Amino acid sequence: MKSTRSAGVAAALVTGAAATFVAPVAVSAPAAPAPKADGCYTWSKSLSEGDSGDDVRNLQIRVAGYPGSGGKLAIDGVFGPGTKDAVARFQEAYGLPADGAAGESTFAKIYELQDDDCSPAHFDYSELNNCNSDWSGGKVSASEARSNALVTMWKLQAMRHALGDAPIQVNGGFRSVSCNDSVGGAPNSRHLHGDAADLGAGSQGFCALAKQARNHGFGEILGPGYPGHDDHVHVAGGADTWSAPDCGI
């Protein structure tokens, strides 16, 4: 039988241990870092048919080159069937699951393709305007002309990718009225709206460019065989006018 003194010492040791014990405190895992903001535009949520708003409009600009043969995608901020189909074609073109809904992988590919000024990495605003520096003097406001040029560049990006990613030579785009007059341009030229581009033959050749343009949202395609267009291919928005007789168009 233990002595009373031994029992007292044991009790003191137990009491001391209890006094110095500190219960563990739960520590939350660090929160996942927020996605790095893109220098141009960052989407904060996935988008699908039925959505609307500026985030949809920004998506439409970037998939404007995927409306299907002879089609045009409205840049209206409404995610309808046409936008769904364009997103699916974009996804298919870049090896993504083609479900027509824009989520993380789709946005990641767009971020990869675009520069901080929102233009696609393979094209530049300066290529689309060798007339002046401020996009003024055309048939639309300077801001609209510049916005139209951005859509045109994304169409050209789609066309470039479809042709194997070889560079596309852009010889000009927006013109003010005075610039247009100085080169003998038509008074109703789409160059005055900022949504036109004149393309050199490059490695693809004029006819390959003219034929491929039919799949990427260009209403106006003029090339070899059309008066004044034997040395370039003209692509633009506007009403449907395709004429490159020497290319079978």
TrEMBL record:
Keywords: Signal
Entry keyword Signal: yes
Signal peptide: 1-31
Residue stretches making up the Peptidoglycan binding-like domain: 52-110
Start and end residues of each Peptidase M15A C-terminal domain: 121-236
Highest taxon of the lineage: Bacteria
Keyword hit for Signal: yes
Matching SUPFAM superfamilies: Hedgehog/DD-peptidase (SSF55166), PGBD-like (SSF47090)
Matching InterPro entries: Peptidase_M15A_C, Peptidoglycan-bd-like, PGBD-like_sf, PGBDSf, Zn_M74/Hedgehog-like
Protein's UniProt name: Peptidase M15
Organism: Saccharopolyspora rhizosphaerae
